[in-house]
# Entry
Amino acid sequence: MRAALADQRGMSMIIVLAVTIVLTSLGASLVGLMHTDITHASIQHASSASFFNAQAGLSEAIAQVFAASDPVGYTNPSGAAGESRNYGQGGRFTYWVDTGPAAGNPCGAGLKTIEALGEVSYLGRMINSRVRACGVPGAPFLSALFGVSLVEAQGATSRTYVAPFLVGTPGAPRGGNIGSFTELNFVDSGLRLNALSENGVDTVTLRDGTFADYQLFGFAGRPIYETNANVDPTPWIISVFGDIVKGQPTTGPIPNDCGTLYACVTVGNRDIDVLSIAALRDTENVRHAYMNAMVQQVLPPISFDPAAFLTAAAGNNANNLLNQRAGLTITGSVYSPTQFDQLMTYLAAGCPSGPTPCVLRGTVYLDGTYRFSRDVNLGGDAGDVTLAVRGDLVLNTGVSVTIRHDLTTVLGRQTPGILVFGLPTPNRRASNVCSGEQANGSGRFILCGGSSQRLIVDGMVYTVDGMSIGPQATVDNIGAMYHNNRFARNPSFSNQNATVVIRFDPLAFRIVGLGISVVSWQQLK
Amino acid sequence: MIRRHWEHGYSSVDVVMGIVLLSLVILTIYRVFIPALALSRNTDERLVRQQDVRLAIDRLAREFHETTLSQNRLVVYSAGCTGAYQGCIGYATARTDCTGSFQLINGAPNWQAVIYVWRDTATNELRRRCDTTTTFPALSWPPSLTPHNVVATEVIQAAFTLVSGGVEIRLRERAPMSSRSSYRYQTEFVNQTVFVPQNR
# Structure
């Protein structure tokens, strides 16, 4: 027995070792897998963080442009090296404004290119993302038609199209926005807003010919969509149109009849704010009005200084020869209403004594109220005239006025068209102008109407106290409209059974000279 | 019992005891090793599924960021997205052939095509289709869905929801081994995020 107990031989150690090895290897592999999982998740996290760092860089760049005294001319101070800043945990961003990778106008002429790179360091590598935005410098916001006070359309034959200027694929870009700080009123249910050939092909006659209205939005053929608002109040076609902007000025809400803090949309004489496009078209039965959506925005009010245009016109000697041939003894381009009338008579007659071409040039300042009584083309088909009026401006019934710019250049596209500033002190009494419109020199732009009346104007159309378009007139604007309000009773914009075609060009807002509006965003990496 | 020097070998008792001990060892190894092996495979599969869900979201991220919430340019389909389909969405892209360069017109996106994403319930695949014939998502589901490519596999649930200012995406993937009833570990993985389209 003792001999047997002394013989301590066996296999248990080997088995224990084997099991230990197996368990250890299993544990190690599990740890390795978990580590891989954590690594992958961390890389994913770093990738997401780099994207948000890039977004932060983009926002910083936009803020810098917005704050610049000259947003149009601004570039980042460090040039091609970009502006870098640490951001987040172990990350940073770098941005460029029209320099470095953003140089060379990749967004297009007249636009600002902003590019940002977001980086995050992980495991000795830099994980990065890159984004780019295109913006219109000098434009605090973009709107094809904006009125500080009431914006209205009325009449069953009233037609308004708010289309894009340059069109790509159908509905790209979307049409312009219309907005107000006070109220947008659809007086009649029969009025048409962006109603594209609902029941057949509708045409518009513009400066460059007669077109089917859907061509304004890039459609080669008539788009088929549900026109019955009871069936579909938001048909697919509304995706090509702009928004109705219920604005509120940064200076605080403007009181309106609806009692809302933002502008309201009303129908007829009801002071109830309509909340959506679907409600406008279906519930309120404004079935021929098509816009994308209603949005609320706080926006800065815009105004222009007439003194700047007076100075520019006083120094504009490009019209001296024309003045002389028209029998005027002045130099520069500042005119009294009488002088301007003499000049218009001479222009309308085709400049019998020259010069050739028979056109005005540059900024023209009219010191007082003026009524166009004869058809004139102020600057030719590719001119550069800005007509600034220190009074009211009226187009008599049936009279056509043309102010066109060279739209192949950025300068031509951003040059303002008509600016109506009103008298420094309006008359105490208003006088009848036409079609029930009254004016007292407050800064109104009135088209009396008539089937032969045509206003063709490029660039910004700005008034201090609103614009009124009389029955059967046609307005062909490539640019934008901004109408202020001087006296509460005057609407900022009124389309009374007229045809208004605004082909919105965001570059028309460059002359505002404040801020920047982003028009596109893309992720490069 | 005294073992005599001329008696070699093992008695039956020895053999039985050895077999019993060996059985105990093998049983121990089985109870430890086999589940460990299963855990290893499960962990590997989990890793793959988790990565697959993340990558699926990643592949769609740029497209969702670059599209627009403009009415009817991004459509989440409910009617018609049943049976063979789940989680159906269509949205515009400004990239040529859906993956090329970003096209601009006057600085704004120049829409080029429509992308459709949906889950095929028969194969549990998350599929993606690029339709260059239009820039407006179809009014109803299903549109033409071929040809398409697969964005993710083993997707057992997909949901797209329009939320204020964005699109919420929720994907649920399952590890294939989870079909066994004896499977005791985590088998499904969810990735949910909200994308905010950046364009007008």
About this structure: Chain A touches chain B through 48 residues (CB under 8 Å). The helical segments of chain A are 2-6, 12-67, 277-283, 306-314, 320-325, 337-348, 410-414.
